[in-house]
Each structure stands twice: as C-alpha cells, then as structure tokens.
Amino acid sequence: MGGSKVLIVDDEKLMRISLESQLKKEGYHVRSVDNALEGLKMVKSEDFDVVVTDLRLPGMNGMELLKEIKKYNQEIVVVIMTAFGTLESAVSAIKDGAYDYIAKPFSTDELIIKLQRALHYKNTAAEINRLRGEIQAEFEFCNIVGNSESMKKVLEIVKSVSERDTTVLIRGESGTGKEKIAGAIHYHSGRKTGPFIRVSCAALNREILESELFGHEKGAFTGAIKMRRGRFELADGGSIFLDDVDDIPLDMQVKLLRVLQERTFERVGGEETLGVNVRVICATKKDLLERVKEGCFREDLFYRLNVVQIGIPPLRERKGDIPLLINYFLKKFVSQYEDALPDVSPEVEEVLVAYDWPGNVRELENVIEHAVAFSKSKGISLETLPEYLRKCDASTDLLSMDLYNKQSINLQDALTEVEKKLIQWAHQKTNGNQVKMAEILGIPRTTLRNRLVKLQSFDKPMP
Question: Residues 337-350: pLDDT tens digits?
Fold first, then answer.
C-alpha cells in the first residue's frame, strides 16, 4: 500500500535511518523521530496512517505514546517494536489499543508485511465506520416523519424509552415502519455501538427459527455440519429486534421467556448454558392479548414483552402526514444532481391523500419511487403514478380522522366539526355562493342557511 504515511519513533539512530530508507524505497511516505514527545507533536500536526514505535524510549515511553495517540485519534494504527525478552509488554500494549507488535531483530520484509496488514485493517475499519454511520443516519429521529398527534406521541415515547434497557413491544400494521422505530430506539441508546440484529419470526419454520435465535451445536440435526452461533449470541452487547413475535410457536416461547428473565439459553443440541447481555425489541401486527385469550400466546411472555408498548397508526388514520411523507421520499429518490425536487401536481396530491394505503408508508414509498422513475424531469403527474392509483377517484374519501390513540370521542362535537369542515370546503369551492354551496352539498338552500346560522362560520351577510 505505497503512498501511505508512516511515522517511525526509535532512539536507535541506525535502526531509524535504515527503516526510513527501506520503507521509502517501497513507496511509503516516511518521517522518523528519536523520542515520543516529538512523535506526538508530529502526529498532531500531520496525518499519519501508521505509527511504528519502540517500547523503550527516553522520557515518555512507547506505551505512554500509544495511549496519547489513541486519545488524540483512534483511527491511527500503532505497531509496537520490542525486544524478544519484553513480549509481555507487547501483549499489554495490544490490550491498550496497539494493532500489532514486531520483535527485534526483524527483517524489513517482516515489517512491510505487518504494515500491509495494518493498513488493510485501517481501511476496513474506516469502511465499517462509514457504513455504520450510514445505517445510523437511517434511524435518526428526523426520519420518523409526521406532524399528526399520534406520530408526535410515538416519537415522544421513542425518545423517552431509548436510553433505558426496557423491553419494548411495537404494534402496527404491515408497512407502518416498525423496524424504523426499533432502529431509532437502538441507535439512540447506550448500546448504539453494539450490534442491531433483526429476525423475522414469520419467515422461518419452527426448526430453522430455533436455530436462528439460539444457534446449534455440530451434529444437532441433519445438516448441522458445524457449530453455529444464534442471533441472541450475535446481538450480545446490543439489541435484537424480533418482528412478528406472535408467530413464535408456543413450545419455543418458553425458551424466549427464559432469555428475557434470566438472559441465559442453550444452543440447539447443546448442554452449555450461555449468558447474553441484550436488549429485546419486539413487533407484531396482531393484538397479542387476543392471541393470549385464543391460547396461541403465553400470558407470562406477553407481560414480559409488553413493558412499554408503542402503537404506530396506519397511514389512513394520519392522512395529514402524507404531503410531508411525499416530500421526504422525493428527497430520497430524486438524484442528487437534480437542481430541485420535481413539482407534485394538485391532482396527484389529491389522489394520494384520498387513497386508503393498505400497505401504509412502505406502499407510499414504492409509489413515489415509481413516480420519480417515470417523471423524466416533467414533475410528478397522474401519468407517473402506478396504474391502480390512476384509476382511484379522489372524491370518494371525504375526511381523514386520526383516531388511533383516542380513548373516547364526543360524537356530537365530532359531527359538528365534520359539518363545519364540509361547509368551509363548499364555501371555498364556490367562493361563498350559497346557491352553488347547497347544490354541491346536496341539501336545500334553506337547510344550508340554518346550518350557517348554527355554526356561525362566516361573517359575510346572506345573499
């Protein structure tokens, strides 16, 4: 990996000059100094990929230099040079963050192999960090889109529960964004640097699911040719997201209950009891309490899972959020090279707000992706929508109500509010012409007059 920047810190002049010369021949950019303090100054003033330092140095030693470098920049890779008799110190240095050590005397070829490995490790770690950053960005709170009261409540609960290790049960229809909520909880918790492991319990049959969750020993069943770690083991130190938890068979629910209570389990076909430190987040499309009453779900497991429940409303019950979501998905799918987002025609917005969205937010996302693909920089028109939406009659949906988190409703107040909205709509459509208002509302003009007096909606004198 020629071209990489290497700093050598060694008080032996001949060794320092020899290494610098030979590494330069290999194409590395090399600097060298004879003490740790000077080395630390150079690390802070120039961008080095690797620091190769002797352990025994005058003043500040190599171990102290390692710690200071790691405090300053975790991404700089440090290789320790040490005499054969002090290998214990080298092992200690690795525990403190050194990538590797090389025992003196060594050949230049040995060091070059170590450097190549160190640089490969550095590039791989940088790529992992970049990907982790991209994944984490996907689960930022700003990606939970919605101004409706129900979505504000969801975000409020997510924020308050993230920092705790509380078990969370997320309930919502398919496509409402349960995984996004689970990810937001994980990536805003103290476990965010740990793994976020996802399992779809509905997608796997009983035997495969048990092995997926808890792992198996070699020879546990036909085809188990080697030991395999399960998802709970892989999630150690992080969070596990169990989607469609209601699909876990009854006999396996006992094992899940034990993990929740004791944080222990055995692999399939194994006797060793394994401990795990993991946060459990579950999701379901069904009413688990109903499943308990039907005898399909253990009551004790339900109460273990239902510590905090987050209910995500279907899109049809928060239609006021649809324009925000349209804009959010346009930003996601429109090329970064475009000057501006395409215009969405009023007819398109009317159709999208009127539609009932059985597939919820996921379906809307797919529709916007389809529309962007067919827009050809002409804006989002009815022609860019999938055929099934072009056939929709927007007028069939009069009102959308956000009822998901309502506990009770005063029917008379609700009817009055609906009536007021319809009369305001008719007033806007006809510019206040009462003859036309009565016509488009399908009621006699005298009835309309009575309604207007009752609601006291408008200040204009009656024509």
Answer: 677 788 999 989 99
